[in-house]
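Field guide to reading this record: the first block holds the primary sequence, the second block holds the structure written as discrete tokens, and the final block holds curator observations. Each block starts with its own label. This record concerns Polysaccharide biosynthesis protein, catalogued under organism Salibacterium salarium.

BLOCK 1 — SEQUENCE
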Amino acid sequence: MTYGKRLMLLMGIDTLIVMIAVFIGGYLIYNTEYIDSPIIIASSLSLVVFHHFFAYQFKLYKRVWQYASINELKEIFKAVTLSIIATVIMQQLFFDIIHKRTLVITWMLHILLIGGSRFAWRMYRDTFLKSHKNKKRTLIVGSGNAGTMVARQMMQGGESELTPVAFVDDDMTKKKLEIMGVPVEGPVHNIENIANELDIEHIVIAIPSLTRQELQRIYDECQKTNIRTQILPMIEDLLSGKVSVNEFRDVEVEDLLGRDPVELDIEGISESITNKTILITGAAGSIGSEICRQISGFQPQKMILLDHYENGVYDVEMELQQKELYSELITEVSDIKDKEKMDTIFESYRPDVVFHAAAHKHVPLMEKNPEEAVKNNVMGTKNVAEAANEYGSETFVMISTDKAVNPTSVMGATKRIAEMVVQHMDTTSETKFVSVRFGNVLGSRGSVIPLFKKQIQNGGPVTVTHPDMVRYFMTISEASRLVIQAGALAKGGEVFVLDMGEPVKIVDLAKNLIKLSGYNIEDIGIEYSGMRPGEKMYEELLKDDEVYPEQIYPKIYIGQTYNINLFFNTVINGLSGLSKEELKVNLIEIANRQEQKVSQM
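BLOCK 2 — STRUCTURE
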């Protein structure tokens, strides 16, 4: 029905309702005496005109009444009340009399009939048109604002495959009460029993503000039912309008890390990036590509994407070009081990800020190929850092790892030596050189998650090195934000570290991933393969004597560093010509060497 036809229909219904209300009100008070009087005709016409006027003012003719709620009822009350008041004034002015009792009854009938006519369609739709057949019986965890919205969306959305059967909430004051006809059955720890009693087929966790620990507790209870469990989108996505409240998603392993994600003030770094030339090495990697995505939002003048993996660089370039960019995108397929090419690139573009993400990161592979770890992680970093110094970059940010602390592996040792190179460069250069350390990154190519997923898909078992092995974890977006934030906080020579909360047992991560994939741990199985060469039982983010007790930024620490004046001509050159075993020993010895401590605060 067109808007014009709909408007005429509603105005016709309202006119009939107003006339009925006036005549019934007069008849109840005065019987037939009032019906023939001039005042009833004038009052009827007056009320019709005033009703249409105020109905238009309060947009009663523009509302979609199949979704009518308490807000629409409020607007009806306002329009009807003002119409009656205006009619009272008319009676006083033209007839010098006010039929109070008649108008009170008319007012009540007016609201009842107008409201009834508007809500009738919703009642009819909800009662007769909405079919619950073939819809999954759904248990909603959380009966607050979000849970109520979820239930309303399910009940109103004819296309929804879910229908709400009950709420679960730890607020015992709500137990046995009903919300929109849906009962609140009990606390979270009783989910399994409730699900069995009510034949639940689907569970939705509708508490966007949950902490990681609370979500883990609730999810563990849901998993006892073996019923598919979904969760609302992140609260910031709901508030920003990116997604709606009925766009549920599966629980991801990132949701169960046991800590809340760190939100950094990215807006505060725009001054260091906007209208600048930014170079990202390792731009095709997990961290490098995410840095590219986040930096693109700050409108740098140029973004130089450098990586030796041509297909990866191409993919990132194509992805960024789909966005509304205000930056010139430049791709360079090159290896950081090629010093001459690094000099050429820096001379051509003279980047203001360098984010150095290129590195070999695979621990067991680097144990077998220590010379390649030295070439890439040490010499490659040296090449890029020297080029940044020579061609006047403002800031150089190197991405390091928790494995660089008290390293026992070739990868960790070469990353620690790379940190030393960066610290040494800071003492001799106008460029601000800093490093950023963080733990394992979920979703990166070196993460255990892809391996676990593949093992689960193949029917198991999932292989874990040791039942007591723990690691720090963070998401790719968190890691990238820390790197970008470090560039803005840099004074020179610092090692920035994210407060990553409590470490997570690898075996617990494996168990969660198995359950999230819809399997039982017993069916897939977990086997312990033993620690590999170079691995540690646990990782550290700072040595005990490196830590400053206070955060320099919310959830960011800065490490105390050392004077490094031994590398460029002696130690690094001394690494050539050694056997693999000699190289391993020398690398770890050098990486654990300390000199005079200097304060960076």
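BLOCK 3 — OBSERVATIONS
Residues 136-251 form a domain with the Rossmann fold fold (CATH 3.40.50.720).
The chain is about 45% helix and 15% strand.
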